[in-house]
């Protein structure tokens, strides 16, 4: 039997994407296992979810004034100790150091709430509304040394409605994230997406969703 991809998921917040990955795995739609959930915040709800699901958790807290290089090295050591196939940033709100990115080159997957390269950084949904965009969405991409600049693996689009505020738009984007991220992880796990390809092949959303479950197609 082919070994399942080993995922270490980094989180800072609610963990709805973590839940989506765990649910896809449990449903047999993602040939991976979450070997650890690691947070920079000890009160992250995502950690509570991981504990409920019996997933190993670790916290590498960062407080204002802490030595950033030391924190980054500890995080690297903790993540590397789990020998991940892929490191997944599922709402992880800290910038990773160069050593960390170099250690897991093209093996770090991030989900971002905009259609990159538009609206990188914090508050993707707020930026989209402020710019008067009519369409936005989410992007799953490999992490490089820039902020939300790495090769794009898949995107899903959503409309921005006149009555939208940031929470309503973010919720609409997240419904797509919750299908797209597990689908991309499945594609990576089974080799349908090659993270080392120089062409950065994208997974079209329908194709991505069908890898999760045909019944989830819009
Ligand atoms: C997601 O919207 C993701 O795009 C962004 O952070 C949010 C995390 O949400 N990077 P959750 O913690 O998975 O609910």
What number is the mean pLDDT?
A: 91
How many helices? The count is 7
Query: Percent of residues in helical segments?
Result: 25-40%
Strand order of the largest sheet: 3-2-1-4-5-6-7
- Low-confidence segments, given as residue ranges, are 212-218
Secondary structural class? alpha/beta
Q: Which sheet architecture does the biggest sheet show?
A: 7 strands, mixed
**What is the CA-based Rg, rounded?**
16 Å
Shape: globular
Total strand count, please? Answer: 7
Kindly estimate the percentage of residues that lie in beta strands according to DSSP. 15-25%
SSE arrangement, N to C: EHEHEHEHEHEEHH
Ligand set: 5-O-phosphono-beta-D-ribofuranosylamine
Q: CA-to-CA gap between the ends?
A: 32 Å
